[in-house]
Amino acid sequence: MTTTIILGDGGLGRAVQTALLAREGADGSNEVRLVGRPRADRHDPRDLAGVDLLVEASRADAVLGNLASGLEAGARRVIIATTGWHADRARVESLLAEYGAAAVAASNFSLGVVLFGRLVEAAVTLFGPLEAFDPFLLEWHRRAKRDRPSGTAIDLRQRIVTGHPRLADTTDLEVVSVRAGSSPGMHLVGFDAAGETVELRLTARDRSAYAAGIIAAADWLTRTPREPGLHAFDPIVDELVARDPVAA
């Protein structure tokens, strides 16, 4: 039996729990535990005893403490699905190295988002040289989402600026963040000219897409021993596309 502990009982944490239980936990052969906020500043490692896989899905300011508690409890496979924590990246990498643990981290675990980013890069190579078209980026998330722009928008912004011949840095790109209602996430990349506008849009209907990507990352970590440290999600998507291009 394997034990997966999800830290964070918000929308994403619950979606991951639902997906895991539907796939492998309903018969009780594998344990899936959803844990909310700790009673003190950080989780007591004794409350996380027996963890095989740790999924971090809480808040940016809790990532470092949650990771430390999970590693101390015995987790050696970790998925970091929270955004906004990269100021602590060096300390996260240090902890993973200290415990010999492997983690997959991404600003967004949606398979569609990863492929959308690649479409955006291709569009930039086409529209970038055309002075008539100005690029822009719009993202819309639920009212309660704290970080703006979102982690996905930051990634898209970097992809656009890196490939665009007329953008010197990220301040040259118009980026708009909307926080209203209950939208799980919408990202729109556009190229606007006097007579026409071209838009690429990705809209999440719910968090099941994120949960599916997290499960794919968990399978990747489990399939064979991985090098300690942080791993990107893109190579996992590459494997999925190569194996099952229709499903991806």
Q: Can you offer a commentary on this structure?
A:
- Helices cover about 40% and strands about 20% of the residues.
- With about 250 residues, the protein is α/β, with parallel strands linked by helices.
- The chain folds into 2 domains: about 5-110 and about 205-245, NAD(P)-binding Rossmann-like Domain (Rossmann fold, 3-Layer(aba) Sandwich), CATH 3.40.50; about 110-205, Dihydrodipicolinate Reductase, domain 2.
- The strands form 2 sheets. The protein has a 6-stranded parallel β-sheet, sandwiched between helices.
- The protein starts with a strand and ends in a 5-residue tail after the last helix.
